[in-house]
Structures are given as C-alpha cells and as structure tokens.
Amino acid sequence: MQRHSYILTLAAAMLVAVSLLVGATAGNASAAMSKEKAEEIILATMPPGSKVIAVEKAKYLPGFWEIAVITRSKLNVVYLHDDGKTAVAGAVFDITAQRNFTDERLKELSKNDYSNLFNIEFDKLPLQTALVLGDPAKAKYKAAVFDDPD
After folding, report:
1. Residue 33 phi, psi (nearest 5)
2. Positive or negative, the Cα torsion across 49, 52, 58, 63?
3. In this structure, are residues 62 and 80 in contact, taking their beta carbons and an 8 Å threshold?
4. Where do the DSSP E strands lie in the chain?
5. What is the mean pLDDT of residues 10-21?
6. Please, what is the Cα angle at 124 between 50 and 114, to 5 degrees?
7. Global pTM?
8. How does the average pLDDT of the chain come out, rounded?
9. Tens digits of per-residue pLDDT, 35-55?
C-alpha cells in the first residue's frame, strides 16, 4: 500500500512539474513575441513590396498571431505561432459551427481601401520603349500594362 501511495505522490509531483514547465514556457513565448516582431518575421518571408496592414493575437487559434498582409495586390491572412518558427497560410474553420474565420476576417478587412499603400507615380515610369496609344497629355485616364513577351 505504501508503494502505491509513493507512486501516486510521485506521479502527482511530476504532473505539477510538467504543468508548471508548460505554463512557464507558454508564458515566455507569448511575452517574447511582440506585434512588431511578428510583423518583422512575416515580412521577411513575403515577396518584396508586401505590406502588413494588421497584426493582432488570433482569436480562434491560441498561441498564434493573425497578420493581414497585402502581397502582390492580394489581401491575405497569415497565422504566426508565438515561437516565431511556425506560420500557417490558409483558412481556419470551426467545424461545429461551420464558420470560416479567415474568410470572415478577410471580408472585414476588405471593407477598407488600401489603394493608397501602392501609389505608383505614373510620371516616373520608364516609357521610352513603351507602346503608347493616344496623346498622354490629353488623356483623362492613364493605364500602364506590364507584360513579359517571353
């Protein structure tokens, strides 16, 4: 009986130690990651010219940051773990409620106008070898189309 009691006490002590260790590790990971650091990590993995427009703790993925980023003129949501080593690009679903949290967030973000983030100064485009249609001085609207002939 004493051996059984000893084993239960030892198991309980180990369980408490593991719980404290996991809690301390989780707390340190959260504290180490700031909004600025999350943004920096994600931008380092994105193509040049990408813009982060929102960073916040993910409401539906504990331990993750939700980062909204515009890449190649497309709005995306990326999830970055507090450890800074794991990122998830894709939809987060609640299977029971049949909700797509990522899609809901994208719809919410899409209500804003982000066109000012990518202003192109038309006068600075290299048009020396461009095919120009019409008189640029009289044009009410201007459009530039970039294509790769190969």
Report:
1. -95, 120
2. positive
3. no
4. 51-57, 64-71, 74-81, 87-89, 93-94, 99-100
5. 33
6. 35
7. 0.59
8. 77
9. 999 999 999 999 888 999 999
